[in-house]
Amino acid sequence: MPAPMNFLLLLSCNSIYVQGSLGISSFDDWAGNVMTSDYVIFSSDGEDSDGEILVTPINDVDMPTIRKQFVTAEDAFTATAHRLAMFGKRHKKHRITHGFVTTLGLITFLTSFLALVDWCAWRIVRQPLDNFYFLSPFIASAFLVACAGYVSIPVLKLFNIRQKFKRKWLPIHFSKKGTPTVGGLFFIPIGVAVAKFMSGSSTVISGMLAVTLAFAAVGLLDDTVAIAACFSFWLYTTNIPSPYGMKMVVQLPPPFGLVHLGKFYLLLTLFTFILMANGHYLTDGLDGLGGGTSALSFVAMSTAVLPICSGLSIFGASMAGACVGFLLHNRHKASVTMGSTGSFALGGALAAMASCSGMFIPLYIASGFLVLEISAVIIQILYFKVAQRLQRRGGRSFHIAPLHHHFEMCGMPEHFIVAAAYCVSSLLALLATYVALISA
Protein backbone atom coordinates (compact mmCIF):
# COMPACT_ATOMS: atom_id res chain seq x y z
CA MET A 1 0.00 0.00 0.00
CA PRO A 2 1.45 3.41 -0.90
CA ALA A 3 2.72 5.59 1.94
CA PRO A 4 0.08 8.36 1.48
CA MET A 5 -2.69 5.76 1.75
CA ASN A 6 -1.16 4.35 4.95
CA PHE A 7 -1.13 7.84 6.44
CA LEU A 8 -4.78 8.45 5.50
CA LEU A 9 -5.80 5.06 6.96
CA LEU A 10 -4.05 5.83 10.25
CA LEU A 11 -5.57 9.32 10.45
CA SER A 12 -9.08 8.02 9.81
CA CYS A 13 -8.86 5.20 12.34
CA ASN A 14 -7.66 7.59 15.03
CA SER A 15 -10.58 9.91 14.33
CA ILE A 16 -13.00 7.14 15.32
CA TYR A 17 -12.14 7.34 19.00
CA VAL A 18 -10.77 10.82 19.47
CA GLN A 19 -13.08 13.84 19.67
CA GLY A 20 -11.74 16.85 17.83
CA SER A 21 -11.37 20.25 19.42
CA LEU A 22 -14.49 21.32 17.54
CA GLY A 23 -16.63 18.68 19.29
CA ILE A 24 -17.51 16.63 16.14
CA SER A 25 -18.70 13.17 17.17
CA SER A 26 -17.05 10.02 15.89
CA PHE A 27 -18.34 8.05 12.93
CA ASP A 28 -19.40 5.22 15.25
CA ASP A 29 -22.35 7.36 16.32
CA TRP A 30 -23.47 7.78 12.74
CA ALA A 31 -23.41 4.18 11.63
CA GLY A 32 -26.65 3.18 13.31
CA ASN A 33 -28.77 5.70 11.40
CA VAL A 34 -30.64 4.79 8.26
CA MET A 35 -31.40 8.35 7.24
CA THR A 36 -29.24 11.45 7.21
CA SER A 37 -29.55 13.21 10.56
CA ASP A 38 -28.51 16.52 12.10
CA TYR A 39 -26.38 16.75 15.20
CA VAL A 40 -26.26 19.95 17.26
CA ILE A 41 -22.96 20.41 19.05
CA PHE A 42 -23.01 23.09 21.68
CA SER A 43 -20.19 25.52 22.24
CA SER A 44 -18.35 25.98 25.53
CA ASP A 45 -21.27 28.04 26.82
CA GLY A 46 -23.38 24.90 26.90
CA GLU A 47 -26.70 26.56 27.60
CA ASP A 48 -26.69 29.61 25.35
CA SER A 49 -28.67 29.31 22.17
CA ASP A 50 -26.26 31.53 20.22
CA GLY A 51 -23.37 29.08 20.38
CA GLU A 52 -24.64 26.18 18.31
CA ILE A 53 -22.90 24.51 15.38
CA LEU A 54 -24.88 22.35 12.99
CA VAL A 55 -23.11 19.28 11.63
CA THR A 56 -24.83 17.11 9.03
CA PRO A 57 -23.07 13.78 8.47
CA ILE A 58 -23.39 12.01 5.17
CA ASN A 59 -25.57 8.95 4.74
CA ASP A 60 -24.30 5.68 6.18
CA VAL A 61 -24.64 4.14 2.72
CA ASP A 62 -21.66 6.24 1.70
CA MET A 63 -19.77 5.79 4.98
CA PRO A 64 -18.28 2.45 6.09
CA THR A 65 -20.36 0.64 8.73
CA ILE A 66 -19.13 -0.44 12.17
CA ARG A 67 -18.68 -4.06 11.16
CA LYS A 68 -16.32 -3.33 8.31
CA GLN A 69 -14.85 0.10 8.83
CA PHE A 70 -11.92 1.13 6.73
CA VAL A 71 -11.15 -2.32 5.39
CA THR A 72 -9.72 -0.88 2.23
CA ALA A 73 -7.68 2.18 1.45
CA GLU A 74 -10.64 3.56 -0.50
CA ASP A 75 -12.78 3.53 2.65
CA ALA A 76 -10.11 5.37 4.58
CA PHE A 77 -9.76 7.96 1.86
CA THR A 78 -13.57 8.49 1.75
CA ALA A 79 -13.81 9.01 5.51
CA THR A 80 -10.86 11.38 5.69
CA ALA A 81 -12.03 13.42 2.69
CA HIS A 82 -15.43 13.81 4.34
CA ARG A 83 -13.85 14.89 7.65
CA LEU A 84 -11.71 17.52 5.89
CA ALA A 85 -14.71 18.72 3.87
CA MET A 86 -16.73 19.21 7.05
CA PHE A 87 -14.08 21.62 8.36
CA GLY A 88 -14.81 23.95 5.46
CA LYS A 89 -18.61 23.57 5.49
CA ARG A 90 -19.28 24.16 9.18
CA HIS A 91 -21.54 27.12 9.68
CA LYS A 92 -23.02 28.78 12.67
CA LYS A 93 -26.72 28.10 13.06
CA HIS A 94 -28.87 31.13 12.36
CA ARG A 95 -31.01 32.54 15.15
CA ILE A 96 -33.21 31.33 13.38
CA THR A 97 -34.58 31.93 9.90
CA HIS A 98 -38.11 30.90 10.86
CA GLY A 99 -38.19 33.14 13.93
CA PHE A 100 -36.80 36.11 12.00
CA VAL A 101 -39.31 35.83 9.16
CA THR A 102 -42.24 35.41 11.56
CA THR A 103 -41.18 38.39 13.67
CA LEU A 104 -40.60 40.55 10.59
CA GLY A 105 -44.07 39.73 9.30
CA LEU A 106 -45.62 40.61 12.66
CA ILE A 107 -43.78 43.93 12.87
CA THR A 108 -44.86 44.81 9.32
CA PHE A 109 -48.50 44.07 10.14
CA LEU A 110 -48.45 46.06 13.38
CA THR A 111 -46.74 49.06 11.81
CA SER A 112 -49.12 49.11 8.83
CA PHE A 113 -52.15 48.76 11.09
CA LEU A 114 -51.08 51.61 13.38
CA ALA A 115 -50.24 53.81 10.39
CA LEU A 116 -53.75 53.21 9.03
CA VAL A 117 -55.31 54.03 12.42
CA ASP A 118 -53.19 57.20 12.61
CA TRP A 119 -54.48 58.25 9.21
CA CYS A 120 -58.16 57.93 10.12
CA ALA A 121 -58.05 58.49 13.92
CA TRP A 122 -59.56 61.98 13.69
CA ARG A 123 -62.66 60.48 12.12
CA ILE A 124 -63.10 58.21 15.14
CA VAL A 125 -62.73 60.84 17.88
CA ARG A 126 -64.07 63.77 15.80
CA GLN A 127 -61.21 66.01 16.89
CA PRO A 128 -57.65 66.70 15.72
CA LEU A 129 -54.87 64.53 17.15
CA ASP A 130 -51.10 64.89 17.06
CA ASN A 131 -49.25 63.53 14.07
CA PHE A 132 -48.20 59.89 14.44
CA TYR A 133 -50.34 59.62 17.56
CA PHE A 134 -49.99 55.82 17.66
CA LEU A 135 -46.73 55.25 15.80
CA SER A 136 -44.64 57.60 17.97
CA PRO A 137 -44.98 55.69 21.28
CA PHE A 138 -44.89 52.36 19.43
CA ILE A 139 -41.60 53.03 17.65
CA ALA A 140 -40.02 54.75 20.67
CA SER A 141 -40.76 51.81 22.98
CA ALA A 142 -39.68 49.22 20.43
CA PHE A 143 -36.37 50.97 19.79
CA LEU A 144 -35.56 51.54 23.48
CA VAL A 145 -36.45 47.98 24.51
CA ALA A 146 -34.45 46.50 21.64
CA CYS A 147 -31.39 48.50 22.70
CA ALA A 148 -31.93 47.75 26.39
CA GLY A 149 -32.02 44.04 25.63
CA TYR A 150 -28.42 44.05 24.44
CA VAL A 151 -27.39 45.45 27.82
CA SER A 152 -29.82 43.62 30.10
CA ILE A 153 -29.44 40.08 28.76
CA PRO A 154 -25.68 39.88 29.49
CA VAL A 155 -26.42 41.21 32.98
CA LEU A 156 -29.00 38.47 33.54
CA LYS A 157 -26.43 35.92 32.39
CA LEU A 158 -23.80 37.45 34.65
CA PHE A 159 -26.01 37.06 37.72
CA ASN A 160 -27.09 33.59 36.52
CA ILE A 161 -30.81 34.49 36.37
CA ARG A 162 -31.75 31.59 34.14
CA GLN A 163 -34.51 29.07 33.64
CA LYS A 164 -34.14 26.05 35.87
CA PHE A 165 -34.78 22.51 34.72
CA LYS A 166 -38.30 21.25 35.48
CA ARG A 167 -39.38 17.62 35.30
CA LYS A 168 -42.67 18.62 33.66
CA TRP A 169 -40.84 20.04 30.62
CA LEU A 170 -41.28 18.30 27.30
CA PRO A 171 -38.07 16.63 26.04
CA ILE A 172 -37.97 19.01 23.07
CA HIS A 173 -37.72 21.94 25.53
CA PHE A 174 -34.62 20.68 27.34
CA SER A 175 -32.51 22.94 25.14
CA LYS A 176 -34.26 25.96 26.78
CA LYS A 177 -32.59 25.12 30.08
CA GLY A 178 -30.33 27.96 31.13
CA THR A 179 -32.04 30.64 28.99
CA PRO A 180 -32.04 33.96 30.90
CA THR A 181 -35.47 34.79 32.31
CA VAL A 182 -37.21 37.70 34.09
CA GLY A 183 -37.02 39.71 30.86
CA GLY A 184 -40.01 41.70 32.07
CA LEU A 185 -37.67 43.62 34.34
CA PHE A 186 -36.31 45.64 31.41
CA PHE A 187 -39.13 45.92 28.86
CA ILE A 188 -42.12 46.61 31.15
CA PRO A 189 -40.60 49.74 32.82
CA ILE A 190 -39.62 51.15 29.42
CA GLY A 191 -43.12 50.73 28.02
CA VAL A 192 -44.60 52.36 31.13
CA ALA A 193 -42.11 55.25 31.06
CA VAL A 194 -42.75 56.03 27.38
CA ALA A 195 -46.51 55.97 27.95
CA LYS A 196 -46.20 58.33 30.92
CA PHE A 197 -43.93 60.72 29.02
CA MET A 198 -46.15 60.92 25.92
CA SER A 199 -49.59 60.88 27.55
CA GLY A 200 -48.94 63.46 30.27
CA SER A 201 -50.62 63.51 33.68
CA SER A 202 -54.01 61.84 34.05
CA THR A 203 -55.78 59.96 36.81
CA VAL A 204 -56.62 57.07 34.51
CA ILE A 205 -53.08 56.81 33.13
CA SER A 206 -51.57 56.96 36.61
CA GLY A 207 -53.82 54.12 37.74
CA MET A 208 -52.90 52.08 34.66
CA LEU A 209 -49.18 52.54 35.21
CA ALA A 210 -49.47 51.69 38.90
CA VAL A 211 -51.36 48.45 38.36
CA THR A 212 -49.01 47.37 35.55
CA LEU A 213 -45.93 47.85 37.72
CA ALA A 214 -47.72 46.21 40.65
CA PHE A 215 -48.46 43.11 38.58
CA ALA A 216 -44.83 43.05 37.46
CA ALA A 217 -43.75 43.12 41.10
CA VAL A 218 -46.14 40.40 42.28
CA GLY A 219 -45.10 38.29 39.31
CA LEU A 220 -42.11 37.35 41.42
CA LEU A 221 -44.51 36.10 44.12
CA ASP A 222 -47.12 34.50 41.81
CA ASP A 223 -49.99 36.26 43.58
CA THR A 224 -52.31 38.44 41.47
CA VAL A 225 -55.67 38.27 43.21
CA ALA A 226 -54.81 40.86 45.86
CA ILE A 227 -53.62 43.44 43.32
CA ALA A 228 -56.69 42.83 41.12
CA ALA A 229 -58.98 43.34 44.12
CA CYS A 230 -57.20 46.57 45.07
CA PHE A 231 -57.54 47.93 41.53
CA SER A 232 -61.25 47.06 41.48
CA PHE A 233 -61.72 48.99 44.70
CA TRP A 234 -59.76 51.97 43.30
CA LEU A 235 -61.87 51.87 40.16
CA TYR A 236 -65.06 51.93 42.23
CA THR A 237 -64.01 54.88 44.42
CA THR A 238 -62.25 57.06 41.83
CA ASN A 239 -64.02 59.53 39.59
CA ILE A 240 -62.96 58.43 36.11
CA PRO A 241 -64.10 60.58 33.15
CA SER A 242 -66.45 58.79 30.77
CA PRO A 243 -68.24 59.99 27.64
CA TYR A 244 -71.39 58.28 28.89
CA GLY A 245 -71.58 60.21 32.17
CA MET A 246 -71.47 57.05 34.32
CA LYS A 247 -69.06 54.32 35.38
CA MET A 248 -69.42 50.54 35.43
CA VAL A 249 -70.73 50.48 31.85
CA VAL A 250 -69.94 47.75 29.33
CA GLN A 251 -70.25 48.56 25.61
CA LEU A 252 -71.88 45.86 23.52
CA PRO A 253 -72.36 45.89 19.74
CA PRO A 254 -75.78 46.83 18.32
CA PRO A 255 -78.58 46.19 19.03
CA PHE A 256 -77.60 45.72 22.70
CA GLY A 257 -75.80 49.05 23.32
CA LEU A 258 -74.71 50.05 26.83
CA VAL A 259 -75.19 47.76 29.81
CA HIS A 260 -74.78 49.09 33.35
CA LEU A 261 -73.53 46.30 35.62
CA GLY A 262 -73.21 48.19 38.88
CA LYS A 263 -71.24 46.26 41.48
CA PHE A 264 -71.10 43.20 39.22
CA TYR A 265 -68.65 45.29 37.18
CA LEU A 266 -66.09 44.77 39.95
CA LEU A 267 -66.47 40.98 39.75
CA LEU A 268 -66.01 41.15 35.98
CA THR A 269 -62.88 43.26 36.50
CA LEU A 270 -61.46 40.76 38.99
CA PHE A 271 -62.21 37.84 36.67
CA THR A 272 -60.57 39.61 33.72
CA PHE A 273 -57.39 40.33 35.67
CA ILE A 274 -57.01 36.71 36.73
CA LEU A 275 -57.79 35.42 33.22
CA MET A 276 -55.38 37.74 31.43
CA ALA A 277 -52.50 37.30 33.89
CA ASN A 278 -52.64 33.51 33.86
CA GLY A 279 -53.24 33.36 30.11
CA HIS A 280 -50.10 35.36 29.38
CA TYR A 281 -48.17 33.26 31.86
CA LEU A 282 -49.10 30.10 29.91
CA THR A 283 -48.09 31.53 26.52
CA ASP A 284 -44.55 32.24 27.73
CA GLY A 285 -43.80 28.55 27.11
CA LEU A 286 -42.86 29.01 23.44
CA ASP A 287 -40.33 31.44 21.98
CA GLY A 288 -42.06 34.59 20.79
CA LEU A 289 -45.60 33.38 21.47
CA GLY A 290 -46.41 35.58 24.47
CA GLY A 291 -44.76 38.75 23.17
CA GLY A 292 -46.30 38.57 19.69
CA THR A 293 -49.87 37.82 20.77
CA SER A 294 -49.65 40.50 23.47
CA ALA A 295 -48.51 43.12 20.94
CA LEU A 296 -51.50 42.34 18.74
CA SER A 297 -53.89 42.57 21.71
CA PHE A 298 -52.44 45.94 22.77
CA VAL A 299 -52.78 47.36 19.25
CA ALA A 300 -56.40 46.24 19.05
CA MET A 301 -57.20 47.68 22.48
CA SER A 302 -55.45 50.96 21.60
CA THR A 303 -57.91 51.44 18.78
CA ALA A 304 -60.86 50.19 20.85
CA VAL A 305 -60.38 52.71 23.68
CA LEU A 306 -59.66 55.68 21.43
CA PRO A 307 -63.27 57.02 21.49
CA ILE A 308 -63.39 56.54 25.29
CA CYS A 309 -60.01 57.85 26.47
CA SER A 310 -57.29 58.83 24.03
CA GLY A 311 -54.63 58.64 26.75
CA LEU A 312 -55.22 54.90 27.08
CA SER A 313 -54.48 54.57 23.37
CA ILE A 314 -50.99 55.99 23.89
CA PHE A 315 -50.45 53.56 26.76
CA GLY A 316 -51.52 50.60 24.60
CA ALA A 317 -49.35 51.64 21.66
CA SER A 318 -46.37 52.09 23.97
CA MET A 319 -46.81 48.64 25.52
CA ALA A 320 -47.22 47.11 22.04
CA GLY A 321 -43.90 48.68 21.02
CA ALA A 322 -42.27 47.34 24.19
CA CYS A 323 -43.50 43.84 23.30
CA VAL A 324 -42.09 44.16 19.77
CA GLY A 325 -38.72 45.34 21.09
CA PHE A 326 -38.65 42.42 23.50
CA LEU A 327 -39.67 40.06 20.71
CA LEU A 328 -36.42 40.84 18.87
CA HIS A 329 -34.64 39.02 21.71
CA ASN A 330 -37.38 36.50 22.49
CA ARG A 331 -37.98 35.20 18.97
CA HIS A 332 -37.03 31.62 18.15
CA LYS A 333 -34.44 30.74 19.36
CA ALA A 334 -34.91 32.96 22.41
CA SER A 335 -32.06 34.72 24.19
CA VAL A 336 -34.35 35.65 27.10
CA THR A 337 -37.85 34.88 28.36
CA MET A 338 -40.21 37.34 30.06
CA GLY A 339 -41.01 35.13 33.05
CA SER A 340 -43.91 35.73 35.39
CA THR A 341 -42.73 39.32 35.92
CA GLY A 342 -43.44 40.26 32.31
CA SER A 343 -46.40 37.97 31.64
CA PHE A 344 -48.36 39.09 34.71
CA ALA A 345 -47.65 42.74 33.92
CA LEU A 346 -48.89 42.40 30.33
CA GLY A 347 -52.04 40.61 31.46
CA GLY A 348 -52.66 43.21 34.14
CA ALA A 349 -52.15 46.08 31.69
CA LEU A 350 -54.65 44.68 29.18
CA ALA A 351 -57.20 43.96 31.91
CA ALA A 352 -56.78 47.49 33.27
CA MET A 353 -57.38 48.99 29.81
CA ALA A 354 -60.63 47.06 29.51
CA SER A 355 -61.70 47.90 33.07
CA CYS A 356 -61.15 51.65 32.66
CA SER A 357 -62.99 51.79 29.33
CA GLY A 358 -65.59 49.04 29.56
CA MET A 359 -64.21 47.36 26.42
CA PHE A 360 -64.25 43.81 27.77
CA ILE A 361 -65.75 42.20 24.67
CA PRO A 362 -63.01 43.54 22.32
CA LEU A 363 -60.38 42.41 24.83
CA TYR A 364 -61.72 38.85 24.93
CA ILE A 365 -61.87 38.77 21.13
CA ALA A 366 -58.36 40.18 20.62
CA SER A 367 -56.99 37.80 23.27
CA GLY A 368 -58.88 34.85 21.81
CA PHE A 369 -55.76 32.71 21.65
CA LEU A 370 -55.19 33.22 25.38
CA VAL A 371 -58.81 32.28 26.04
CA LEU A 372 -58.26 29.05 24.09
CA GLU A 373 -55.15 28.29 26.14
CA ILE A 374 -57.00 28.77 29.43
CA SER A 375 -60.00 26.80 28.16
CA ALA A 376 -57.77 23.87 27.20
CA VAL A 377 -56.35 23.74 30.73
CA ILE A 378 -59.81 23.88 32.31
CA ILE A 379 -61.18 21.19 29.96
CA GLN A 380 -58.17 18.98 30.68
CA ILE A 381 -58.69 19.24 34.44
CA LEU A 382 -62.46 18.68 34.28
CA TYR A 383 -62.11 15.73 31.92
CA PHE A 384 -59.53 14.14 34.20
CA LYS A 385 -61.74 14.61 37.27
CA VAL A 386 -64.85 13.20 35.57
CA ALA A 387 -62.98 10.24 34.09
CA GLN A 388 -61.38 9.53 37.45
CA ARG A 389 -64.76 9.54 39.16
CA LEU A 390 -66.49 7.36 36.53
CA GLN A 391 -63.70 4.97 35.61
CA ARG A 392 -61.62 5.21 38.77
CA ARG A 393 -58.69 6.31 36.68
CA GLY A 394 -57.87 9.63 35.07
CA GLY A 395 -58.18 10.43 31.40
CA ARG A 396 -57.04 13.22 29.10
CA SER A 397 -58.81 15.19 26.42
CA PHE A 398 -55.47 16.57 25.12
CA HIS A 399 -52.02 15.04 25.02
CA ILE A 400 -50.91 17.79 27.36
CA ALA A 401 -52.18 21.24 28.35
CA PRO A 402 -51.93 24.11 27.49
CA LEU A 403 -52.90 23.94 23.85
CA HIS A 404 -49.57 24.85 22.25
CA HIS A 405 -47.89 21.90 23.99
CA HIS A 406 -50.64 19.63 22.66
CA PHE A 407 -49.77 20.76 19.13
CA GLU A 408 -46.10 20.07 19.82
CA MET A 409 -46.95 16.55 20.96
CA CYS A 410 -48.82 16.11 17.67
CA GLY A 411 -45.56 16.76 15.82
CA MET A 412 -45.91 20.43 14.87
CA PRO A 413 -42.65 22.43 15.06
CA GLU A 414 -42.46 25.30 17.51
CA HIS A 415 -41.99 28.03 14.92
CA PHE A 416 -45.02 26.80 12.94
CA ILE A 417 -47.24 26.96 16.04
CA VAL A 418 -46.09 30.52 16.79
CA ALA A 419 -46.64 31.65 13.20
CA ALA A 420 -50.15 30.14 13.20
CA ALA A 421 -50.91 31.87 16.51
CA TYR A 422 -49.80 35.19 15.00
CA CYS A 423 -52.09 34.74 11.99
CA VAL A 424 -55.09 33.83 14.14
CA SER A 425 -54.42 36.66 16.59
CA SER A 426 -54.06 39.16 13.73
CA LEU A 427 -57.51 38.27 12.43
CA LEU A 428 -58.94 38.43 15.92
CA ALA A 429 -57.34 41.84 16.46
CA LEU A 430 -59.04 43.17 13.30
CA LEU A 431 -62.36 41.70 14.42
CA ALA A 432 -61.97 43.19 17.91
CA THR A 433 -61.27 46.61 16.40
CA TYR A 434 -64.39 46.42 14.26
CA VAL A 435 -66.58 45.33 17.19
CA ALA A 436 -65.18 48.12 19.38
CA LEU A 437 -65.78 50.86 16.81
CA ILE A 438 -69.40 49.87 16.21
CA SER A 439 -69.98 49.56 19.97
CA ALA A 440 -68.54 52.92 21.07
Would you mind describing this structure in some detail?
The chain is mainly alpha-helical. 61% of the residues lie in helices and 4% in strands. The chain is built from 15 helices and five strands. The protein has helices spanning 3-17, 73-89, 97-125, 135-158, 184-199, 203-218, 225-237, 264-283, 289-304, 310-330, 339-357, 360-366, 368-391, 403-409, 414-439; strands spanning 39-42, 52-55, 91-92, 249-252, 257-260. Strands 1-2-3 form a three-stranded antiparallel sheet, with no helix packed on it. A hairpin with a 4-residue loop joins strand 4 and strand 5 (257-260). The protein is globular. The model is unreliable at 4-71 and 87-95 (pLDDT under 50).
Total helical elements? 15
- Element pattern in H and E: HEEHEHHHHHEEHHHHHHHH
Helix content: 55-70%
Low-confidence stretches: 4-71, 87-95
SSE layout:
Layout: H1 3-17, E1 39-42, E2 52-55, H2 73-89, E3 91-92, H3 97-125, H4 135-158, H5 184-199, H6 203-218, H7 225-237, E4 249-252, E5 257-260, H8 264-283, H9 289-304, H10 310-330, H11 339-357, H12 360-366, H13 368-391, H14 403-409, H15 414-439
Antiparallel strand pairs: 1-2, 2-3, 4-5
What attributes does this structure have?
globular; single chain; 3-stranded antiparallel beta sheet; 440 residues
Summarize it.
The chain is mainly alpha-helical and about 450 residues long.
